[in-house]
Every structure is written in C-alpha cells, then in structure tokens.
Design brief:
Elements (H helix, E strand, L loop, with lengths): L1 E9 L5 E10 L4 E5 L6 H9 L6 E5 L11 E4 L11 H11 L4 H14 L15 H13 L5 E5 L7 H18 L2 E6 L2 H7 L2 E5 L6 E5 L13 H17 L3
Parallel strand pairs: 3-7, 3-8, 5-6, 6-7
Antiparallel strand pairs: 1-2, 1-4, 8-9
Length: 246
C-alpha cells in the first residue's frame, strides 16, 4: 500500500521525533508499531494520515496515489465522542463533514455500527455506554467512510484487560472480514504479538525502525495460550531489549 523512504520528522523546537524511517507495507497487512513511550509511534501515524508532513524523506502510495481523506480511518487513544450526540450521530460525523445527507448516510452508519456489534445501541449517548462500547463507536466512526487504511493509536490502552481482549478479538475478526490495511500503535508486547502479522520495532527517540518481524501464526482464531504465541512474545521482547539503551 505504501513505502517510506528515509522519512524524518523534526519539530520546531528542535526535537527529532523520527529519523531514517524505511518501511514497506503491503495491502491487507496488520502492522503493529511497537516501541518505548516517546519513540515517535504516534508521530509516524500522523504522517501516514496526512495530519503532518515529514521534514525529509518520502511516503509513496502504491499505484493509485495517496488516498483521499475519506479513504483513511483514524482511531485515537481516546474515543473523543460528542457527549450530546447518539452513537449513530457520532458515527455519522465524518460523512456529515463531507456533505453526505443524513438519509443517504443512514445505511452506512448502521452498517458501521453493526460491524462493531452496536446496532442495538444506535440511539444511546456516550454517558450510557461503557468504555469499551465508546471505543467501538469510535471505531465505527472510522469505518463509516469505508476506508482502505485504518490507523489506530493505542485505542485499547485505557481499557481493562477483559475488555481489551474482547476488542482485540473483534478487531481481528473485522480485519479478516474486510481485508483492510491496519497500522496499530501499541506499547504492549502481548498486544502486538496477538494482533499483527508484521511488527515494526522502533528505537527510543529519534525513532528508527530497528527490526521488522513477520510472524507466521496459525491461521484461524489466535490462541494466547499457544506455544507459538509465547515464542513470539519472547522474540519481540529480545528485539526490544536490543534497541533499548543500557
């Protein structure tokens, strides 16, 4: 889907967030960006979203050119829902901003809510929803424009372990069903091992990609208790230990 060649990002105060990023991501991949806090994972995601521009280097987008804004879905760490709006109205927001009439948008909104298991809560407001359900609404909002690329910035970090596991399973099912390309920022070794088929290990700031792992986990539902999963966790842990300063 896209390639990054010697991508760097330096902010106005002189902070070097990223340096020499080289990577290639194929369509349909589930990529985890994994590294210590402050290594530039979220900055790299914003560059992919077009929210910021690299200081140097190039991001090239396959044969079709750079996706239009509606072709990229972005899920933030916090659901950032409108508190006075229903789940359906929150999911409708990207289409409303693009000028899509409500009547034309309703089928897409309901389909997006159904994808995350919330069609029965379309008329509920955020205060009536649990933290996990609010995050599902945020994911539905990112899906409503049917993006080819889904960017997710630690969306499950603030959730309890049970809810996090449930949403991880749901996300894997959604990815297998739709074939979307997903780039997922996390600082959890276990989350990266469970979700991704490509894991990019980043160094402390300025962030570089120190290793790219392409695990071959068994097809079908993943099992956290499996030996191959635990071997992958150990491999990722070793890769991270090698890039951390002593």
């Amino acid at each position: 889907m896209f390639k990054l060649r010697q991508v760097a990002k330096q902010f106005g105060d002189g902070t070097k967030a990223l340096e020499g990023i080289n990577a290639e991501i194929a369509p349909g991949s589930f990529v985890a960006l994994l590294g210590p806090s402050g290594c530039g994972k979220s900055t790299l995601l914003r560059l992919l979203a077009g929210l910021e521009a690299p200081t140097s280097g190039e991001i090239s987008w396959g044969h079709a050119g750079k996706p239009a804004p509606g072709e990229i879905g972005y899920v933030f760490q916090d659901p950032t829902l409108l508190p006075w709006a229903t789940a359906a109205e929150n999911a409708y927001l990207p289409l409303r901003l693009r000028g899509v009439k409500r009547t034309a948008a309703i089928p897409k909104v309901m389909a997006a809510l159904a994808q995350v298991g919330l069609e029965e809560f379309a008329h509920a407001k955020p205060k009536a929803l649990s933290g996990g359900m609010r995050m599902r609404v945020s994911i539905a909002r990112a899906l409503v424009s049917e993006p080819a690329l889904l960017l997710m910035d630690e969306p499950f970090a603030a959730l309890d372990e049970f809810t996090r596991h449930k949403l991880q399973d749901d996300l894997l099912g959604l990815w297998r069903q739709t074939g979307k390309t997903v780039v997922f920022v996390t600082h959890s070794i276990y989350e990266a091992a469970y979700l991704a088929n490509q894991i990019m290990i980043m160094t402390p700031r300025p962030g570089r990609i120190a290793a790219i792992l392409t695990p071959e986990l068994a097809q079908g539902p993943r099992r956290r208790e499996s030996a191959e999963y635990h071997r992958l966790v150990e491999e990722i842990t070793g890769s991270l230990q090698r890039v951390m300063p002593t």
